[in-house]
Amino acid sequence: MNYVDHCKEQNYPVPQEPIIFSKFASAITEPNGAVIHPKETDSLDYEVELAFVISRRGKHIKESEAMSHVAGYTVAHDVSARDWQMKKNGKQWLLGKTFDTFCPLGPAIVTPSSLSDPHKLGIRCRLNGELVQNSNTEQLVHKTGALVAFISRFMTLEPGDVVLTGTPPGVGCFRDPPIWLKKGDVVECEIDEIGKITNTIIQ
């Protein structure tokens, strides 16, 4: 819920505070690695996201100092099992977000100084060559500095931590009818000035 246009898509009020959930390290996979479709879900969905990587340990970081804790930006594919996220396990998001291979990252970490503006970048996702998400990071509600400051109120940020910043509209679960990923599908996640990652769904 961190893109204004994604909130509008769901008729959901723009959050005053970031909505935070976790993905375990075992979810991370290579930029062009395969994504495993778990037998536990029939509601597998795609999400392109801008992610940033922490460079320096910190707690209670001021927003004005937040960028000194950011190594750079990368592209993330926040694969999601919507049934486990929205219906099962008490509707807690964790299990639906953290199956193995549910977080392809890459293709590189691009330093902030190498980007024209990380909050004014085109962001898009293609499913089997068809454009399904197409927005701009200027739609982000809570931007990098605000996220670093907010998250570090609750936990110590460590070098190598990765923060995914949310997805724009167009995800499969809010389409009519819904679009669910299946074996053989190819998902491309791309952000201007950072690059593209490509993931094939396997079983």
Describe the structure.
This protein is mainly beta. The protein has four helices and twelve strands; from the N terminus they run H-E-E-E-E-E-E-H-H-E-E-E-H-E-E-E. The protein has helices at 4-9, 82-86, 94-97, 144-151; strands spanning 28-29, 35-36, 44-45, 48-54, 70-77, 80-81, 103-110, 122-127, 130-136, 162-164, 186-191, 195-202. The model has no long low-confidence stretch (mean pLDDT 96).
Topology (SSEs and partners):
Layout: H1 4-9, E1 28-29, E2 35-36, E3 44-45, E4 48-54, E5 70-77, E6 80-81, H2 82-86, H3 94-97, E7 103-110, E8 122-127, E9 130-136, H4 144-151, E10 162-164, E11 186-191, E12 195-202
Domain Fumarylacetoacetase-like C-terminal: 2-201
Keywords: Hydrolase, Metal-binding
Protein name: Fumarylacetoacetate hydrolase domain-containing protein 2
What's this entry about, in short?
With 203 residues, the protein is mainly beta.
State mean pLDDT (0 to 100 scale).
96
Structural class: mainly beta
Q: Beta-sheet strand percentage?
A: 25-35%
Strand order, sheet with most strands: 1-7-5-4-10
Q: Report the order of strands and helices.
A: HEEEEEEHHEEEHEEE
